[in-house]
Design a protein that fits this description.
The chain has one domain: Phosphatidylinositol (PI) phosphodiesterase (TIM Barrel, Alpha-Beta Barrel). The protein has 12 helices and 9 strands. Helix 11 links the parallel strand 8 and strand 9. The chain is globular, with a radius of gyration of 18 Å. The N and C termini lie far apart (about 35 Å). The mean pLDDT is about 95.
Length: about 270
């Protein structure tokens, strides 16, 4: 099972190379002092629990336990990943299968929701997540292209689930797949986040076309020049995944609107 979920067309640099660059940049920035952000910049930057929490021992990502952890530790919102079951129910899971996170054999797309709930009760139904956390957390929702085989039906189903929320405030729709973001023609651009992998030229084109309201990506990719380009088109920037106090302060100081963090409790102490 591959953990690389970005479409191959967006991956211009081998994942092993990009992962190494990110580790090196984390180490350098951790040792590079940054001034404490001012109050306005701190209020602008929303801290978002990545998959609720991703690097907390004993807590499984994208579960109610992870989302509760984010809420209890003062996160503004949660990033979560959606998958479609065989009977077109939206559930929360990053991987297409259950093995890595839950230790259970089975592909989500091959299971009806009733079968999935019996096999792995820890996988949340998206509708239930909204009901539980609406008004308490905002939702940063990542969609995977490989799950969309009936765009019209599935877009209606997604928007139905989100009908009690306000886009651009309560939720944002995100994807690495730029064609998927374009195909979601009933979702306002202000509610869409294009996630950059190693394809800045493709993202720049999308920004120029006015298709998205925000661009997100690892902070290493979002250069000052790229930031200026986005701001010229009234597009905001968000980042993942600051791994130290200095790294997070750097991002807040340069005006990002959100930062995805893997450990909400630790990140909250950095500001």
């Amino acid at each position: 099972m591959a953990l690389e979920t970005a479409p191959q067309s967006t991956v211009k640099v081998p994942p092993q190379v990009s992962a190494l660059l990110m580790r090196v940049s984390d180490a350098i920035l951790a040792c590079t002092p940054q001034p404490a952000p001012n109050k306005a910049d701190i209020e602008r930057c929303k801290l978002i629990g990545h998959r609720g929490c991703k690097d907390v021992a004993g807590v499984k990502e994208n579960t109610y336990e992870a989302f509760d952890y984010a809420l209890e530790n003062g996160m503004h919102g949660i990033e979560l990943d959606l998958r479609w079951t065989k009977d077109k129910q939206l559930v929360v899971a990053h991987d297409p299968d259950l093995q890595r996170v839950h230790g259970v054999e089975g592909d989500i797309a091959d299971l009806n929701f009733s079968e999935l709930r019996t096999l792995c009760p820890a996988v949340p139904l998206f509708r239930e997540v909204i009901e539980k956390y609406q008004g308490k957390l905002s939702f940063y929702i990542e969609l995977k292209k490989d799950d969309w085989d009936d765009m019209a039906l599935q877009q209606r189903a997604l928007l139905s689930e989100l009908s009690s929320l306000t886009g651009g405030r309560d939720y944002y729709i995100m994807s690495f797949d730029l064609d998927l973001l374009k195909a979601l023609d009933e979702v306002p651009a202000s509610s869409k986040v294009a996630i950059m992998h190693s394809n800045p030229s493709d993202i720049k084109t999308l920004v120029e076309e006015g298709c998205v309201g925000t661009v997100g990506g690892h902070y290493l990719l979002l250069t000052k020049k790229f930031q200026q380009h986005c701001h010229q088109h009234n597009v905001d920037l968000g980042v993942g995944f600051p791994a130290s106090r200095n790294s997070l302060r750097r991002e807040v100081n340069r005006g990002v609107v959100f930062a995805f963090v893997d450990d909400p409790q630790k990140a909250k102490t950095w500001l």
